[in-house]
Amino acid sequence: MADKVVELLKSKYLISPIHYEGMQRVATLEIPEKALREMLYNAIVHKDYRGSAIMMWVYNDHVELWNEGELPENMDVFTLLKKHKSRQRNPKIANVFYRAGLIEIWGRGINKIRTEFEKVEMPMPDFEETEGGLMVSFKRKHPAHQDKGSDSATTQVTTQVTTQVTTQVQALMTAIGNEEMSVKQLMEALNLKNRHNFLDNYLTPAIEGGLLTPIFPNQPRHPRQKYRRK
Q1: What is the pLDDT of residues 158-167, one digit of tens each?
Q2: In what order do the strands lie in the sheet with 212-214?
Q3: Is 222 left (phi over 0), alpha (psi -120 to 50) or beta?
Q4: Which of 13, 59, 166, 194 places its Cα 20 to 30 Å from the Cα of 223?
Q5: Distance CA 202, CA 35 (A)
Q6: pLDDT at residue 116 above 90?
Q7: C-alpha dist (Å) from residue 92 to 44, 47, 75, 126, 192
């Protein structure tokens, strides 16, 4: 997921200048790596899975990360940048990331990002609500070289960050089509054997994302329950 995206950025798009600490050769990514991972984790956890994929654009002098999903009611960008309560759009996904030690549940992700940028004396990323989602824009410490007469957009590199969760939900939606299908039928269609894996990683995100609805609402996880598209 996020780790693969970070490795892709490190190998192809961002710069890791080399310096020496004593006799040891050290290559440090131009953008604080912990902050970059935190931004990606937040995008995955807070994404509205009914919308577009997470998008990332790498420019000569900055990087932009856009995530589908408006901020919760009574919260704006200014509130986000201050101490605030955590409101998970996808609580089960957030809980998995929390138990894995990847995020904190208490709304301190933005402060962690700010701290990492301050450590390397770089400007705090800009946050903006736009086009039904949240855009994060942050500077590169070592802008890429460009030809004379070109501007930063000329050498734009556009990558689409598709998380594993997104891929799984898309597979589930393809399997169900326009039919009504039970848990057993869906697992067979996806060639899955582990019921808990299916329920937690495929079915629950689709239901929480408003993509599927159970035929019998009071028993959403019953073995004979059937689901259809909303």
Answers
A1: 444 444 556 7
A2: 181-182, 226-229, 212-214
A3: beta
A4: 166
A5: 28
A6: yes
A7: 12, 13, 22, 28, 20
